Amino acid sequence: MEKIRVAIVGIGNCASSLIQGIEYYKTKMEKDIIGLMHWDIGGYKPYDIEIAAAFDIDKRKVGKDVSEAIFQPPNCTAVFHKDVPKKGTIVRMGKVLDGFADHMKNYDEKKAFLLSDEKEASKEDVVRELRESGTEILLNYLPVGSEEATNFYAECALDAGVGFINNIPVFIASDPEWARRFEDKEIPIIGDDVKSQLGATIVHRVLTDLFKKRGVKLERTYQLNTGGNTDFLNMLDRNRLISKKESKTEAVQSQAKNRLEDENIHIGPSDWVAWQQDNKICFIRMEGKLFGDIPMNLELRLSVEDSPNSGGVVIDAIRCCKLALERGKGGILYSPSAYFMKHPPKQFTDDEAYGMTEEFIAGKRKD
């Protein structure tokens, strides 16, 4: 089958895991597959994805082939497939805007960005690159809190006529005005804020839904997360966390029988621990009442390599977006958004979203 040509904004840890994964699964057969929700979506395998264009603002990545750029610092995720062949796709200088947090200038260069001194790209530059590269889908992997930069690249996707997958907690698909614009241009969009394969949010959501189904009254809960990658360092600026906390909190609140008061739910990144690198450690506590108003509590510790945990989800999102392009379906893809994202335009339980997405893939649901 033809390749699915994607462009990536932000060649960080998540992009590294995604590109490594595309190459890794070329060496596998379906019967041996571990770590994917779907081997085949509409005839497309994981390795049918091709990196057509890439944008970043770090001087160690700009100007390099994307196969080399993904292993440059401050990237620190697990290297599970080192032999990524040259792609012939050079990382272009992007637009900075708020994609760079000022407080990160003072950190060790191995842990923070080094801003490139190349001229920033204009919207015309980005749109031209998307068109000339044959890009079909643009992936947003900018740092948390990059609202202006995300809006800029969403505009570029609209102008270039390419699908958009918003993997970060800046609200595009779940914003009615942005959604209308993608609908008007008949361009598919999946968003917002990728839900990892087996991460803190999906586990917390499933447990919250379990409390509801088993008749347990959830009274209080928290989710505390620590990590040592650039994303956690970026989030030390609490002003960049507003939409992130809303996205993660709503993902859990939407599964509860009754919404919790703000004082009884705390969900969000907690701190940067440098030596953890791309390992994310999550602590969840849930307090409730059982039969006869008898109190109970649950505590859970989850440790995952953060960036690979999203790779398989995004591989599926890309292929679903490609199906929408082939079918002439523009606007919000509600089913994939509900299954793959924390803050979709419409929330469903994960069981419901799974069923809806299977129907979408099979062509039984237009979305």
How does this structure look, described?
The protein starts with a strand and ends in a 5-residue tail after the last helix. It has a seven-stranded parallel beta sheet with strand order 3-2-1-4-5-6-11, with helices on both faces. Strands 8-7-9-10 form a four-stranded mixed beta sheet. It is globular and about 65 Å long. It has eleven helices and eleven strands. It has helices spanning 13-24, 66-69, 123-132, 147-160, 176-184, 200-213, 230-234, 242-253, 308-327, 334-340, 350-362, and strands at residues 4-9, 49-56, 91-93, 137-140, 163-166, 188-191, 217-227, 265-272, 279-289, 295-305, 331-332. The longest helix has 20 residues, at 308-327. The protein is of the alpha/beta class.
Strand-residue proportion: 15-25%
Helicity level: 25-40%
- The oligomeric state is single chain
Widest sheet: strand ordering: 3-2-1-4-5-6-11
The gist of it:
The protein has 367 residues and is α/β, with parallel strands linked by helices.
Keywords:
single chain; 367 residues; alpha/beta; seven-stranded parallel β-sheet; four-stranded mixed β-sheet; 11 helices; 11 strands; globular
